Amino acid sequence: MIIGVTHDQDGRVIQRLSVSTKVSIGLPPNGDRNHPTKLDHFVFLRKKKSANRVGWEVDPELTNHYGDECRELHIMLIDDDIENVFPSSYAWWTATERKCWGDGTSATRRTAEKPGGQPWTQCGTGCPELSSGQCKPGGDLRFVLADFPRLGSVCRIHTCSYRSIRQIHSALQEIQTFTGGRLAGITAKLTVRPEEATYFDRKEKRKKTSSIWALGLEVEGDDMQKLIANLTENARLFAETRKLLGSGGKVFEVVEDEQEQAPEVAAEFYPASVNGSLIGEGTTAGSSSDAIPTAPAPQPTTKPAPAENSTHPNGGNGSAKPPANGVASPPAQNNGNGSAAGSGFNQLRNEFLTAARRVATTKKQAIGEVVEWASGGAFKYGDVGRMTEADTPKLRAATELMGSAVASQAR
Asked: Could you tell me the residue range of the domain that residue 223 belongs to?
């Protein structure tokens, strides 16, 4: 046992899975093609080692199995927490690193003074980098290919499409509604289909309509009874197996090096603009509500900077996922599972937010209402990101209350 490597501070096993297969509906620049290529079908890529970096190449075995024009494939979900299955955030990527990331309310930005990241208040609407297209929404769906089940690693598909992010996240929420919060073990169909979308042309300063290829997630059944069976059978089997193996105390993470992912994301999804609109999957995937107005440049807050420690692996996207509370943790903090200062409190806060999302999904309530109920009105959802270790007692009490509610609901 090594605390911070194989176990967290509370002695729980940290299950870290690597990304071995990438599924995509676009290809990065290559050779004579100096621009990314959008596709109307899936391509399957595997890792390759070149002289000084790790890249991706077409996987011949998967391509041969699924065909050259695959638009549907069956996948198996790997965890019950949506933030582990489909982490999403706004992110500004360069060719070497993730410069800034946030949840639309607050962000963490790397600066010359704080290269590990510091709190940044302006995120989402009003952010100049989002308005200019340097920052984009991003989501990474992690899964196992149903036809090629494998333990120890996962597959990933990245999207920067507003439409695709909404559709996948909404599908996961709907599945949880039917299964009582379970996702692990669910077999679903990942699709890419043509859809019509409206976007704002920055050069011509007007809205335009275009056709896009957007991702979706579905669970099939010949009738409602079979649909429910498809949803619950594998999930129940997974839950029973975990109980038998005593794996309920594991902390789940997907590890992907940020420096390895940065060139891929920067090249494939953040090319130079054309006619004021970015090229790439999801460029025109927004609606009129996706247009982001410009605003003055944001300034850093006076909050203390996050702990800087770049020696540990981290979760998701090559970096720690930004929690739903609006305070994104920089990659250096191990999602609160390492030995950095305050990691115990960060872990408690993450557990609180996970419990709040599950109760909100089960009871079909807004997460803000759940937080106020669990805290007895002591604090609100927006307060969670500003909490300190002094708030540990009331945060723990609220977490235990929601845990009891989830347990009683299961019975």
From this structure: 14-314
